Amino acid sequence: MIQIFKKISLLGYLATLLSVGGCTEDKNGDRLYFSIEDDIKLGAQVSREVDSTYQAKGQLLDPANPRNKVAYDHLNRIVNKILSSGKVSYRSEFTWDTKIIKDDNVLNAFATPGGHIYVFSGLIKYLDNEDQFAGVLGHEIAHADHRHSTKQLQRQYGLTILLSVALGDNPGTLTQIATNLATLKFDRDAEKEADAYSVDYLGATNYYACNGAAGFFEKIIKEGQQGRTPEFLSTHPDPGNRVDAINNKAAADGCKTQPSGATTYQEFKNSLN
């Protein structure tokens, strides 16, 4: 009886959604059936499942644990500089919590809908400076802010199933999404857009080099690490083209490309040992 009621509730929700005008335009000019409120609900469900998955492996660094305070103080300071740039559309609506997954062998970061960001310790340790890391964070924030994760998941699972996950009615698919989110592949346009918005975000901080993300691509190319390249960098276009695109946008925007000179990034890396 409960399952029947849930199905009726979901069908009723879909019927209401379609009857009141279908897709609506969000702050970024995108038109989606999936509302911002749905994004927030879906993100809350997925982030809880992601947390549970990595906690079970002993890999999620608990922000409330005093032993992790130094690492999270560094991380939150960098994230807040980007979020305070004035360029993040859903700065107020989304959660924007960022957590560290302890795995030094993984160069990756990923975002859920609703602004939950996850960063692997391997990525933090691999990068040379704070500007590069801020560039990668800007890229992931853009994926959430411009709802790339939601769009890709909707293409993959369909609107009805994704809404059922957001409403807490589909634990099997929720587990699948949480498990696969770190390797979610975006299309060419989404990756290019995330790179471009990273430039916008960092440029508006008036602190970081706006082309900070290009430094990671350049390091990957120079060191021949393509085999370890995370999904958000390994998908097309190739790293060399993305360096050019980021630097070209920075030049066109006339934003600051001189590194910030922040001196505490090594301390951040050391705090993860």
Structural features, described:
One of its GO terms (molecular function) is metalloendopeptidase activity. This is M48 family metalloprotease. Residues 74-248 form the Peptidase M48 domain. A hairpin with a 3-residue loop joins strand 4 and strand 5. Helices cover 58% and strands 7% of the residues. It has a 3-stranded mixed beta sheet. The protein has a two-stranded antiparallel sheet with strand order 1-2. The protein contains 13 helices and 5 strands. With 273 residues, the chain is mainly α. It has one domain.
Topology readout:
Blueprint: H1 2-19, E1 24-25, E2 31-32, H2 36-56, H3 69-83, E3 97-101, E4 109-112, E5 116-120, H4 121-126, H5 130-145, H6 148-157, H7 159-166, H8 171-180, H9 188-205, H10 212-223, H11 231-234, H12 239-253, H13 265-270
Parallel strand pairs: 3-5
Antiparallel strand pairs: 1-2, 4-5
Helix pairs in contact: 2-7, 2-8, 5-9, 5-10, 6-7, 9-12, 10-12
